[in-house]
Structure formats: structure tokens, C-alpha cells
Amino acid sequence: MHDWSFPIPLTMFLALVVFCYVRGWTHLRKAFPRIITLGHMAAFMGGIFSIWVAVASPLAALDDELLTVHMVQHLLLMAVAPPLILLGRPALSLLHGLPKRFVQGIVGPFLRWAPVRQLEKIITRPVFCWIAATMTVIGWHLPTAFALGLHSAAWHEIQHASFLMAGLLFWWPVIRPWPSISRSPQWSLPLYLFLATLPCDALSAFLTFCGRVVYPSYLLAPRSFEISALQDQEWAGVLMWVCITFIYMAPALALTVRILSPAAPPGNSPAVALGPQTVGNELLGATRVEVM
Q1: Which of the residues 4, 215, 243, 271 could staple to 61 if both were Cys, CB 3.0 to 4.6 A apart?
Q2: How confident is the model over 42-86, as pLDDT tens digits?
Q3: Are 41 and 94 a contacting pair, CB within 8 Å?
């Protein structure tokens, strides 16, 4: 707590994002109460709060002393905040929470711009998302890159931003928030999640069982807690192993059950009558933003 100071700029930015989301959510609820519920807003709020805890709370003041805290930050930014944000259907609320002139004059033309549409098709493919997330995790945990992020404030922020962006990309094919469209069969998603655990499990197993301190900076860090640098590293490895396995395999199991379950008759499915894609087309038509 002595080394922590309240990060006003970041907190204000996150508060502004929340304000725009709530404003748009309120507008949408009046016309389409079923398309974006209180649960969606709660998920989005949880994701934004997870980001604040990871990079702005007193927890962030301990990341250069304990690898376990550093690992908690990475898990929050890559495995907790992104799925919660995407479950909140952010595009719908944010587009209707921003000023209409800004959406019509800047956001709409930008989203309709051909290079942006082409880039969206590339970066939301499951293969690209999987590779981006895996390379981000492995790359930043190489000793040289890790030390760079630990000793440079600028690179530390870049590290945090890359974890968050990689997390959003990774969870995009799984959650498929509007306006994304599935380009792969449903049975591939459990396999996608299972394969994502393998590099994380390999990294966490190495940190847990290698028997030496991989990141020398933690050998020189002040020890405010009764834990050695090697024990700290082992705990960080176990934390990553357990959390990633649970966070990735729980939705994989849920998706598998849904795929194997009998399909509901189309007439009984509310999603057919009032799906996010259908309503989303109407909503963006009102704001003149074309669906990507």
C-alpha cells in the first residue's frame, strides 16, 4: 500500500467506458428488454472491474515483488476480463451510448472501411486467435521479455495491453458477441479450448517443477512476505495450471453438452425470434452503422 498510488487517468477512462455502456444499455432496454439484460451488464461490469484490479488496484504494487501476483494480473487480463466483457455484448451498448454524431461521422465510416472489414475477417478466425493468444503467453514469459516488462514502465503497460487484446481475440470465437458470425463448426470449439490449455500447462509445469528461479529479478526483490523466490515461482505455476485448466475446460464441457443435446424445435427457441444478430441489424440500421 505504501508504494501504491490511485491511478486517476486509467480509472477515469474505465469509468467513461462504463458510463457509455450504461447509457447505451438504458436506451436499448427501453426498446428491446430481452436482447441485452441485467446479466449482460453485470458481466461487462465484472470485466471492467477485473481490469482495474489487475492494473490499477494495490495488487499492481506487488507485481515486481511476487511472481504469483504477476500471474494473477495475467489471468485477470487474459482469462477473466475478456470473456466477461464479451458476454456483456459491448458493441450493442457502446454504439448506442456514444454520441450519435460521433457514431455516424467517425465510427460508422471506419467500420465500413474496406481494410477494416478485411482485417476483421482475418483476426477473428479461430486459428489466428489461438496463435495470437499462445504467442502472447509464451512470448512474454521468456526471461528476456519478462525482464523488459518488469523494469520498464512503458513496456509493462504494453505487456498488460497485449494480454488484454490477446484475451479478447482468444474468447471471440467462443462467445461470438454480436456482430461476429461463426465461421467454424461448433464441434471445433471444445477442441479449440482444449488445445489452448496445452501451452499454458507446459509453461506452468515448467515454472512449478524446474527447481530454479527462472526470473532473476525476483531473487533481488524485497521480500515482504515469508516466501522464497522459488516457492513464489512454484505457487505462480500451480495457480496458472489450475486456473487455466478450469477456466478453459469448463466452457469446453458446456459446449460439448450443448452440441450433444437434442436440438430444440425452432418454434420454441426465443433466440430465433429475437436473436442478437436480427435485433442488432435493426439497431445499427437506426444509427447507420453497417454490420461487419
Answers
A1: 4
A2: 999 999 999 999 998 888 888 788 899 999 999 999 999 999 999
A3: no
Q: Which pTM was predicted? A: 0.83
Q: Which of 286, 276, 281, 285 is nearest to 35 (CA)?
A: 276
Residue 211 has pLDDT above 80, yes or no: yes
Provide the 10 A C-beta neighbour count for residue 91: 22
Q: Tell me which H or E stretch contains 52.
A: helix 38-55
| 3 lies in some domain | no
On the question of a cis peptide bond just before residue 266, with omega within 30 degrees of 0, the verdict is no
Which residues lie closer than 8 Å to 184 by C-beta, 6 or more apart? 126, 173
Q: Give residue 136's pLDDT band: very low, low, confident or very high (50, 70, 90).
A: very high
Residue 142, amino acid: L
Environment class of residue 78 by beta-carbon count within 10 Å: exposed (0-12), middle (13-18) or buried (19+)?
buried
Cα distance between residue 126 and residue 48, in whole Å: 24
115 within domain boundaries: yes
- Domain range enclosing 134: 8-287
The number of domains in the chain is 1
What pLDDT was estimated at residue 289?
37
- Residue appearing with cell numbers 451498448: 93
